[in-house]
Amino acid sequence: MPATALNILKTVYGYDAFRGLQERIVEHVIAGNNAFVLMPTGGGKSLCYQIPAMARPGMGLIVSPLLALMADQVAALRQAGVRAGALNSDLPPEERRALWDDISAGNLDLLYVAPETLLSNGVLERLGRAKLSLIAIDEAHCLSQWGHDFRPSYRQLDVLVRQFPDIPRMALTATADAPTRAEILAHLQIAESDAFIAGFDRPNIRYAIAEKDTPRAQLKDFLKRHQGEAGIVYCLSKRKTEETAAWLRGEGYDALPYHAGLDKAERAANQQRFQHGEAVVMVATIAFGMGIDKPDVRFVAHIDLPASVEAYYQETGRAGRDGLPAEALMLYGAEDIALRSRFIEESNTPDERKRTERSKLDALLGLAETAGCRRQVLLAYFGDEIAPCGNCDTCAEPPTLFDGTISAQKALSCIYRTGERFGQAYIVDVLLGAENERIARFGHDQISTFGIGTEHDKTLWRAILRQLIALRLVDVDHAGHGGLSISDAGRDFLREKPTLMLRVPAPRRSRRGKAAKSSTQSVLPEADQALFQALREKRLELARAQGVPPYVIFHDKTLIELAAARPASRTEMAGVPGIGEAKLERYGEAFLEVIAGFEG
């Protein structure tokens, strides 16, 4: 291993050793080889290109999808003493000229650029005159036509292969199934032998999925465990985003909305508040999140069904990037399944794409309805195998299963005898023998399935129907008003009558679960908590003075280490992981003063 790489790791980043595959990847790229890197969020992907870019002669060119992400990464690198810059369309003319002067003079270690800017007039030609150490394409899954974050401009990045054939190329992502990986390798001409797959597991995230009951009450219960912490709440629509953010503000949370319909300046201001704040809750559509670099997001909640397993993995992966405990909650119901299915059927896409999207939705529903370990099902989708994790809701409280064969037959029969045009609530009322004007008007109080389901309550029948929809035994009229009908698979089931095991929904008090260890305080001894908070306050003060996010100064994990070690000198502080030479010089005295105040 070149000494320069280990030296950079220690002096710039403050770490004594690489993690996982980092060392092999760094060594491979420094030697001039291409690399495809699949590593979970928080696994240290950025070091895999930043260190080789500094170790090799020239400037590293980093293609990144979002301006806000680039700004954060450049700010963090500059805090660590690295010469970094970002080229984007928002730069004022004088700053752009100064940046190009630095590029021409060889004064930069790393240059971040969005693909659209890279491909604009003259940029590639001017970069061709600079000495490049490597080219790294971050969030590389964006080039896959089948991916959930497809960016057309990423498809054009194969021009880099032709223009810079002798410069090492890197493609990095945290989420890519096997077909997406193959597409990235082929498009960027990276050999299979240059692929480094570190796996997908994020053991610090606790996964929980529950049926929607009273979503706001369920979200409120969840957020009680995260007072004073930052997190993201994902909604499907712009309207719901606005309404949920307003409701949370009324409940005392510093909640902000984020969606594509907001004014650009308001979106940017809200994102900056989230990045720079310590306890901001961002309520957002999927327009928010790709490449979010904030390491101290302690929770992600979906109050609507996400688009796919890949989207769920990527969105929940924004929690706990610092490796500290985090939580992910997803709420969903039959209406969500119907809406997602409608999106697929009404999309103006080829039939092949629709088939792919249907299979992706089926995989997500399999994750939602599993009675086994959530993490096992999630990782199996990406080809990973693990033992039951012990850190998800189904491991903590295994669901009860029952033989639902007869119940399913009753439900399907009721759907058939009511004409295959009524929604879930109506079918449940008929099965329970409800006496209401609508049932009487249609004469469904006279059919054979009226009142045959009194062995179950409304909650269980609703769960049964939701599972039948998830199992594709029941179809939903997407274009109409959610009417249920029996699918071909459902008709086969009625003929063949195979045994069908279904889940019993957990009682609401159980779904709230035990208070998970999800905050930074959960990993701190009580004796260190006051000092940790004081260090956070000092960090926030220093960050505000510079107009940067607090975490670019030090991560929470570093503050926890400081609170535990309580160094009394710069020499002792230099031994704390995460404190490189530039940060020690810049911030050592300020934090040592805070620590000294707790030693008296």
From TrEMBL:
<dbReference type="Pfam" id="PF00570">
    <property type="entry name" value="HRDC"/>
</dbReference>
<dbReference type="GO" id="GO:0003678">
    <property type="term" value="F:DNA helicase activity"/>
</dbReference>
<feature type="domain" description="Helicase C-terminal">
    <location>
        <begin position="218"/>
        <end position="362"/>
    </location>
</feature>
<dbReference type="InterPro" id="IPR018982">
    <property type="entry name" value="RQC_domain"/>
</dbReference>
<dbReference type="InterPro" id="IPR044876">
    <property type="entry name" value="HRDC_dom_sf"/>
</dbReference>
<keyword id="KW-0227">DNA damage</keyword>
<dbReference type="InterPro" id="IPR006293">
    <property type="entry name" value="DNA_helicase_ATP-dep_RecQ_bac"/>
</dbReference>
<keyword id="KW-0862">Zinc</keyword>
<dbReference type="InterPro" id="IPR036388">
    <property type="entry name" value="WH-like_DNA-bd_sf"/>
</dbReference>
<dbReference type="Pfam" id="PF16124">
    <property type="entry name" value="RecQ_Zn_bind"/>
</dbReference>
<keyword id="KW-0347">Helicase</keyword>
<dbReference type="InterPro" id="IPR014001">
    <property type="entry name" value="Helicase_ATP-bd"/>
</dbReference>
<dbReference type="InterPro" id="IPR001650">
    <property type="entry name" value="Helicase_C-like"/>
</dbReference>
<dbReference type="InterPro" id="IPR004589">
    <property type="entry name" value="DNA_helicase_ATP-dep_RecQ"/>
</dbReference>
<feature type="domain" description="Helicase ATP-binding">
    <location>
        <begin position="26"/>
        <end position="194"/>
    </location>
</feature>
<dbReference type="InterPro" id="IPR027417">
    <property type="entry name" value="P-loop_NTPase"/>
</dbReference>
<dbReference type="GO" id="GO:0016787">
    <property type="term" value="F:hydrolase activity"/>
</dbReference>
<dbReference type="Pfam" id="PF00271">
    <property type="entry name" value="Helicase_C"/>
</dbReference>
<comment type="similarity">
    <text>Belongs to the helicase family. RecQ subfamily.</text>
</comment>
<keyword id="KW-0413">Isomerase</keyword>
<dbReference type="InterPro" id="IPR032284">
    <property type="entry name" value="RecQ_Zn-bd"/>
</dbReference>
<dbReference type="InterPro" id="IPR011545">
    <property type="entry name" value="DEAD/DEAH_box_helicase_dom"/>
</dbReference>
<keyword id="KW-0234">DNA repair</keyword>
<dbReference type="Pfam" id="PF09382">
    <property type="entry name" value="RQC"/>
</dbReference>
<keyword id="KW-0547">Nucleotide-binding</keyword>
<keyword id="KW-0233">DNA recombination</keyword>
<protein>
    <recommendedName>
        <fullName>DNA helicase RecQ</fullName>
        <ecNumber>5.6.2.4</ecNumber>
    </recommendedName>
</protein>
<dbReference type="InterPro" id="IPR010997">
    <property type="entry name" value="HRDC-like_sf"/>
</dbReference>
<keyword id="KW-0378">Hydrolase</keyword>
<feature type="domain" description="HRDC">
    <location>
        <begin position="525"/>
        <end position="600"/>
    </location>
</feature>
<dbReference type="InterPro" id="IPR002121">
    <property type="entry name" value="HRDC_dom"/>
</dbReference>
<keyword id="KW-0067">ATP-binding</keyword>
<keyword id="KW-0238">DNA-binding</keyword>
<keyword id="KW-0479">Metal-binding</keyword>
<dbReference type="Pfam" id="PF00270">
    <property type="entry name" value="DEAD"/>
</dbReference>
